[in-house]
Write a structure and sequence with these properties.
Elements: H1 2-13, H2 42-57, E1 58-63, E2 67-72, E3 79-81, H3 82-94, H4 103-115, E4 126-128, E5 132-133, H5 142-159, H6 167-181, H7 206-215, H8 220-237, E6 248-249, E7 255-257, H9 267-278, H10 281-293, E8 305-307, E9 313-317, H11 320-329, H12 337-348, H13 355-368, E10 398-402, E11 405-410, E12 419-423, E13 426-431, E14 435-440, E15 446-452, E16 455-460, E17 467-475, E18 478-486
Antiparallel strand pairs: 1-2, 3-4, 4-5, 6-7, 8-9, 10-11, 11-16, 12-13, 13-16, 14-15, 14-17, 17-18
Length: 487
């Protein structure tokens, strides 16, 4: 009886435990010669901004067919745009941590997307609250689809897919629709599924195209052609005097309308993201041009857009829309570290911004702080600069077993603290000294016991019957307990 009481208390204490594979903050070094801001409180301040964003812009409700859903309020707060759904879904993936998973919020945003589809099964781009599309909001805007599809793939790695909710299969279906309806015959990205008269450089998410190439492997050559064609257009679009980009352009890259305004401002963020995740040479070249021709002699306090294509101010809007992507643009070289840190301080100092700037503050902040890694290429477990790389293919990997369980073991160069982190069907253990791990079923029975020396380990549980388990790690006098699902 006492044993059952203890377990009820443990379960109660763990009721709000987050079931994510890559808990915030990650603070990863992306590699590829890139840098992040070095501000020591970057992740804390950014998470506080996210909490404020949720309270101000995230709203739950009921969509058509009595479906529970959630939206992100647009600058006109009674409306929502599909772009905001994509931004929100990316945020829910990357801000989930060891105390709270935003999986439910992610699912409700995806339900909203699915509730307002056009004939091509893509979301109409502007919606009145929870009712229907506006007169000027019919049919899809491609940047939303690209971000939503990428978020679905990342959700597969963050939250895990099940037979009832397979994020990866859902992403594959959406990626196919993007390829069929939102890519022109010349491989340039269309601005929407029914629009093809001009191009928007800020829609070009090269990290998404690379992910699509991996996920939709049978169409890898097509997605590579999309990458190549759109880089060629973007290179032609970059202004030779300022290194800036235009809001809209023609197929040959020449300016069609809008200078470096609220659309174009996102382009450096997209490029820095591509350089961070994949080391794209074209992205680095474009960022270098932007720095040498524009940013090199600009202090963060001077940044106020929009700008003419030749670099002169056309207005004096100081906000995250312009500062955030420029912060990311500086990440291509370590020589920009001091400048990037100054830009970061300016970026994180903005408060109470409207939807668009507030969203870009968070998204560019995630990238700049090392909290937006490619989860498809990352190792599950706790983030932070001191965490170790864990891979079953490591040359240091060995196998051991205890009570029928298998463990992949990698000895890291350094383990800075005792940690036990939940993964999908597994736990990640980091031990600075000897540790014992016990796995219990919900009746309090010990299912498995492991003993470990100092090191970093993954304890796989996928062979256990499906259900919820309690995992306890004992590090001398220190104890950690997690609730772990096996699906």
């Amino acid at each position: 009886m006492a044993k059952n009481v203890v377990f009820l208390l443990v379960l109660s204490a763990l009721a709000a435990h987050s079931e994510v594979n890559f808990p915030y903050p990650q603070e990863k070094s992306y590699g590829n010669g890139t840098i992040n801001t070095t501000s020591s409180d970057r992740s804390t301040k950014l998470k506080n901004k996210f909490d404020s964003f949720l309270s101000k812009f995230y709203e739950t409700g009921t969509c058509p067919n009595n479906r529970s859903c959630a939206r992100i309020k647009w600058d006109e707060t009674d409306k929502t745009v599909s772009e905001g759904i994509g931004y929100g879904m990316l945020m829910m993936v990357y801000f989930s941590d060891n105390t709270r998973s935003y999986k439910d919020e992610f699912d409700l945003l995806w339900a909203y997307y699915q509730s307002f589809l056009n004939d091509n099964k893509l979301m109409n781009w502007k919606i009145n609250g929870f009712s229907g599309f506006t007169n000027d909001g019919k049919n899809a805007a491609t940047d939303a689809e690209v971000d939503v599809a990428l978020a679905l793939v990342m959700a597969h790695y963050q939250f895990g897919s099940t037979s009832n909710k397979n994020y990866l299969d859902t992403a594959k279906s959406l990626i196919s629709k993007i390829r069929l309806h939102e890519v022109s015959t010349n491989n340039l990205l269309k601005p929407g599924d029914t629009w093809d008269s001009e191009r928007n450089p800020s829609y070009l998410s090269f990290v998404a195209f690379e992910i699509f190439k991996e996920v939709e492997s049978s169409q890898a050559a097509k997605w590579q052609s999309v990458i190549d064609a759109n880089y060629a257009m973007l290179i032609a679009n970059q202004n030779s005097t300022s290194g800036l980009f235009s809001d809209w352009c023609k197929d040959n890259g020449s300016h069609s309308r809008g200078a470096y305004e609220y659309d174009a401002a996102r382009t450096p963020w997209r490029l820095a993201w591509a350089n961070a995740w994949y080391g794209h040479a074209n992205a680095k070249t474009l960022l270098t041009n932007l720095y040498t021709k524009f940013l090199q002699n600009k202090n963060a306090s001077e940044i106020a857009g929009p700008y003419a294509l030749t670099g002169g101010n056309t207005s004096n809007h100081k906000n995250s829309t312009f500062v955030g992507p420029f912060t990311n643009a500086l990440s291509y070289s370590s020589t920009n570290q001091a400048k990037m840190d100054t830009y970061w301080n300016t970026l994180i100092g903005f408060n109470n911004e409207p939807y668009y700037s507030a969203a870009l503050q968070l998204l560019t902040g995630l990238l700049a702080s090392g909290n937006m890694p490619n989860l498809a290429k990352s190792t599950p477990g706790n983030g932070g600069p001191s965490s170790s790389s864990i891979s079953s293919s490591s040359s240091n990997s060995v196998s051991s077993s205890s009570s029928g369980g298998n463990t992949s073991v990698i000895l890291p160069q350094a383990v800075s603290s005792n940690r036990l982190n939940a993964m999908q069907n597994a736990v990640n253990l980091q031990a600075i000294d000897n540790a014992e791990v016990q796995i219990f079923d919900l009746n309090g029975n010990v299912v498995r016991t492991f003993s470990f020396a100092r090191g970093s380990y993954v304890v796989y549980m996928a062979d256990l019957p499906k259900g919820l388990y309690i995992v306890k790690a004992q590090f001398g006098n220190q104890r950690e307990i997690l609730q772990v699902p096996v699906r």
